[in-house]
Amino acid sequence: MAYYFNGKRINALNRLVIEIVKKYVSEHPNISYIDLKKVFRDEIGGSRGIIKNKQDFEIWKQNIKDPEKRFFIKDNEIVKLANDEVYINQGWGGDWQDSKSGKIKEGNKKRFLEFAKNELHYEIEIDSINEEEKDLIREDKNILNIKNIILYGAPGVGKTHNYQNLISMIEEGKSQKEIFDTISQNEKVSLNDEIFQTIQDEKRVEFVTFHQSYSYEDFIEGFRPNENGNIELEDGIFKRVSAKAINQVKEKELKHISFDEAYDIFRTSFINEELETLKKVTGASIIIHDVKEKTILLQSENAKDSQYVKKNDLGTVVNAMLRDKIHKPVDIKNLDVKKDTISLSDFYYPLAKKIVEIIKKNRVDVKNEKNFYIVIDEINRGNISKIFGELITLIEEDKRDIYEVTLPYSKEKFKVPSNLYIIATMNSTDKSIATIDIALRRRFTFLKMKPNLELVKNDSARECMQELNNYITAKLSEDYQLGHSYFMNVQNDEDLIFVKEYKIKPLLEEYFYADEKSADEIMKEVLREK
User: Which end of the chain, C or N, has fewer beta carbons within 10 A?
Assistant: First the structure.
């Protein structure tokens, strides 16, 4: 299990708790110990609490039965306050996962993660094979599960601009709610311009415009003449981008965590009293007294003396075992280790086996799965059923990666990958909007975009836009309102006159083509024409 917080990968919850306390203190540098205790309340950490200053720590030590238990490690991590210093609870085990059922138990770990997420509003990612554990903080944040989106609105509302924002926000891992609220409200959003540029450079986005003559053969596959005049089968843009997305998933790789990371997990398991009993090859149990940063103090059952195992030499044994060079304790003598290590091979061997087990159980991505995008401009101008053909069903979110069809020309098996987003734009004033294929309506999520006056800085331009849209809404509907992009670059009256004459007037003449009276009225009252 690993956690991602504040730009770091953290391999154990006790380390995560330390990082969270440190971050909170850095954000509140003048906070007192009493006020910090009110935030990191004892009940969240169970009977031991979360933080203690030196005075409380000494009192706590006197009241526990076994003061050697390192629930608070004094010399490990001390968080300094303005006028005090605090120790952090290192014991977060025994109340998370039932050893028999494997189910998550309501307890300190869950309480702390929910506290950090809901009260401190910190973003924490969990990398674990346990899906129940991930669900604690995943919600709908990490992946936008809606894969088919249509941005629609009147001319000039920024549909083309916002599809880039939409893609950038998906790449940044924004929540579904934040993405949809930002795009639908046409909010000005601060995004890293390099994100979309990187996607383009990596050729993960394709752009196409639908029109009446656009076909299945253009979009999926079809026979076309080559440069020599011969007919050959050619993949369409949708098939090509789908193949890229599928191949990228296949290239996804995993690697084992490092020895140091595995040692940290082993040490945390000991601190949390979750470490199972280790045995020598003879069957004798090994009693572990302490796991420090560089050594492990242990002894064999019924033995009088304790022994120290060195972390460095243990790492050598582990690496040899991973390379399949160690099969029994006696093999350790062939390694470049000290004599005392060889003499303690019956300890090193089971410890190394346990570390190797931890390494193999904990794997991390070295190549994250990337998203691909196809942007379809003016999607409603094409014959959707004709263009998508049999793939119209496969683009549904719950059909992706599962269902496949045989393509009619190539006879290849084909499925739509889940890491492919279909983002389309549509003009709400287009007369063909009413004829949108029902199949398309059902399989896409429609995100309406409205004009945003706040994006127009010039007062005269903003007033003109408001008057025009009030009139248009009264005479037609809000679907015909003019977007802010017509007015955003207006800096003076001369610019506004140009926009009115060469951008607004032709559009209004089209709007009121059959209503000469309304056309004359808006020209005189709003555009101030004589």
Answer: C
Q: Can you spell out the DSSP letters for 341-380?
A: HHHTHHHHHHHHHHHHHHHHH-EEESS----EEEEEETGG
Q: Which stretches within 3-80 are classed as H helix?
A: 13-27, 33-39, 54-63
pLDDT digits 0-9 by tens, 424-461: 998 877 655 555 667 677 788 888 888 888 888 899 89
Residues 6 or more apart whose CB falls under 8 angstroms from that of 302 comprise: 284
In a domain, 408, yes or no: yes
Of the residues 431, 448, 465, which one is the last residue of a structural domain? 448
Q: Which domain-ending residue is among 396, 421, 448?
A: 448
Residues 30 and 131 both lie in one domain: yes
Give 120-178 pLDDT, tens digit per residue. Answer: 888 887 765 444 444 444 443 445 778 999 998 888 888 877 888 899 989 888 888 88
Q: What DSSP string runs through 449-469?
A: ----GGG---HHHHHHHHHHH
Q: Are residues 284 and 330 in the same domain?
A: yes
Q: In the prediction, which pLDDT does 472 show? A: 86
| pLDDT, tens only, 366-421 | 556 789 999 999 898 888 889 999 899 899 988 898 888 999 999 999 999 999 99
Judge if 425 and 499 occupy the same domain.
no
Could you tell me if residue 246 is inside a domain?
yes
- Tokens, residue 470: 């009030």
**CA 61 – CA 68 distance, rounded (Å):** 9
Interatomic CA distance for residues 27 and 223, integer angstroms: 63
Can you tell me whether residue 316 is helix, strand or coil? helix
Distance CA 382, CA 213 (A): 7
- Between CA 334 and CA 328 the distance in angstroms is 11
- Residue ranges making up the domain that contains 331: 259-357
87 and 131 inside one domain: yes
Give dist(CA 293, CA 311) in Å, integer: 8
Check whether residue 353 and residue 411 sit in a common domain.
Answer: no
How far is Cα 124 from Cα 110, in angstroms, rounded to an integer? 13
Reported as a single tens digit per residue, the pLDDT across 332-347 is 999 988 888 899 999 9
Is residue 246 located within the same domain as residue 385? yes
Q: Does residue 363 fall inside a structural domain? A: no
Residues 18 and 104 in one domain: yes
